[in-house]
């Protein structure tokens, strides 16, 4: 069987992992490094790779998480008080040797020092504590959770990676809120030296800024809400300013755009490889309502072809 294994598709399975280190990155971020022998078989690939963290219910263990090919249906069928929690996160870094994986968790909902209690902003974004952020806020070396990911390497988007701009894209705009920071960090660190673009990131606090080594032609702009600005407002203003610089033509040149339902289970659209032969490529991720508005800004207001814009609702205010 070993010979045929590489020809098969990866399957998603649960890797039981242990916290090796916890590093506070800023008021709203904690980096948790996980380790386990089994991580040597983790299927890393791509730069914005999503995985799921698996958290046992209080007083329960990861043994509640079903294994085998039918795990998803079995997991759904579990009673709520037993069913382990699944939440989506980004692989910030994977090191096969010494079998480590980093995830940067946003400490929302009063779990961080810089919690944004602001409400009444149209999105709410009041940030009620959720199980994943709450777990991350008190994680200690030796704590155990599960990571659900592919069991062998793959390529491209198929294994939970969305960053795949067309070869023709020479002008990049990446925009996101704090939940997109780990994905954006991994993306910009791997851009070719010739890359050009503007990255706009909105975070809760000034000290949530991170320093990355990026190509000379790429500028990273941080916007801190500081508990005063509504979620997404500074990001939208920042992206509009970036578009004025990179794509100065077309504000007001209305383009037909189907409405998208931010309450649909997933707000997600990633163009196919090379679907857009243009020089521009946009990548947007964060709170779904804000991402919908950003997409409208790029496509409807600035006339950027929708095939050149990937948009991903990473979370939805008020919903788990
Ligand atoms: C592809 C993908 C990659 C992601 N990568 C990361 C990552 O690397 N790091 C990361 O921190 N998050 C990431 N997220 C977002 C993360 O999945 C959500 O924030 C998730 O809801 C957190 O789970 P929770 O258990 O803490 O809160 P939940 O139980 O899901 O939600 C509880 C409440 O908190 C609100 N809420 C959830 N997230 C936030 C937030 N960030 N700020 C304010 N309010 C919030 C919800 O609207 C809800 O009202 C990613 C999401 C996707 C889809």
Write up this protein:
By secondary structure, the protein is α/β, with parallel strands linked by helices. Helix content is 17%, strand content 28%. A seven-stranded antiparallel sheet has the order 4-3-7-1-2-6-5. It has a six-stranded mixed sheet with strand order 10-9-8-12-13-11, sandwiched between helices. The longest helix is centred in the last third of the chain and has 14 residues. The radius of gyration is 20 Å and the shape is globular. The N terminus is likely disordered. The chain binds flavin-adenine dinucleotide (FAD). The site of flavin-adenine dinucleotide has 27 residues, from strand 4, strand 6, helix 3 and strand 13.
List keywords for this structure.
single chain; 320 residues; alpha/beta; Elongation Factor Tu (Ef-tu), domain 3; Rossmann fold; 2 domains; seven-stranded antiparallel beta sheet; six-stranded mixed beta sheet; 6 helices; 17% helix; disordered N terminus; binds flavin-adenine dinucleotide
Silhouette: globular
Q: If strands are numbered along the chain, what order do they take across the biggest sheet? A: 4-3-7-1-2-6-5
How large, in whole angstroms, is the Cα Rg? 20 Å
Question: How many domains, as an integer?
Answer: 2
Question: Layout of SSEs?
Answer:
Elements: H1 2-5, E1 12-26, E2 29-35, E3 50-55, H2 71-77, E4 85-90, E5 93-95, E6 100-106, H3 131-137, E7 144-150, E8 171-176, H4 181-189, E9 196-203, E10 218-224, H5 233-246, E11 268-269, E12 280-287, H6 288-301, E13 309-315
Parallel strand pairs: 8-9, 8-12, 9-10, 12-13
Antiparallel strand pairs: 1-2, 1-7, 2-6, 3-4, 3-7, 5-6, 11-13
Flavin-adenine dinucleotide binds next to strand 4, strand 6, helix 3 and strand 13.
